Amino acid sequence: MGVKKAARKKVQRMKQPGAPVITITEFEETEVREGIPGRDEPDFTGQRKGNTMLRDDRAGGEGRRQAARNVLGEVLEICSITPMTGFYRDGCCNTGREDMGSHTVCALMTAAFLEFSKSRGNDLSTPLLEFGFPGLKPGDRWCLCAPRWQEAFEANQAPRVVLRATHEGALAHCSLADLKRFAVDLA
């Protein structure tokens, strides 16, 4: 496959008086990137600012949050940091209560799938620079909504998937057998 850029994980824990602890996880490329003042600063609204999404890490009184798992039951691996993907823009197909679309399938983009997605109203190839979205091209990895992958599968347009980077939450929408048939990372 392509060359992976090294990344380092940056975690910040923030707490406002009377509010739960919120964790921000970002992956930064080892090459120097300049941030945009005002855009990359976190806020407490739960909204995206730049490439950051705040995540509610409350475990519902169950103690420490467990490491995310992939569809194989292993620790979830990074899907892509170039382009930066994931609902939380942390490079992983993590999910949580805030992720209504279940962005859990790490998929390898193809021209056919990008056209299919565009025909269904989700244009992933056109850049939206005001939102920090570069647009996708064939060969990019991206965290797809599991229902969209299933829709593409049923239309014979499903892209290949990286199982080790596909969150176990995808199994609520897609069968493991179908995902395995499209896996790029099974020996």
Structure characterization notes:
There is one protein chain. With 187 residues, the chain is of the alpha+beta class. It has one domain (7-181): Protein of unknown function DUF2237 (Phenylalanyl-tRNA Synthetase, Chain B, domain 1, 2-Layer Sandwich). The chain has 3 helices and 6 strands; from the N terminus they run E-E-E-E-H-E-H-E-H. Strand 1 and strand 2 (22-29) form a beta hairpin. 34% of the residues are buried. The strands form 2 sheets. A 3-stranded antiparallel beta sheet has the order 1-2-3, with no helix packed on it. It has a 3-stranded antiparallel beta sheet with strand order 5-4-6. Helices cover 13% and strands 17% of the residues. Mean pLDDT is 77; it is low at 1-61. It has helices at 111-119, 146-154, 176-181; strands spanning 7-14, 22-29, 55-56, 103-108, 141-145, 160-161. It is globular, with a radius of gyration of 17 Å.
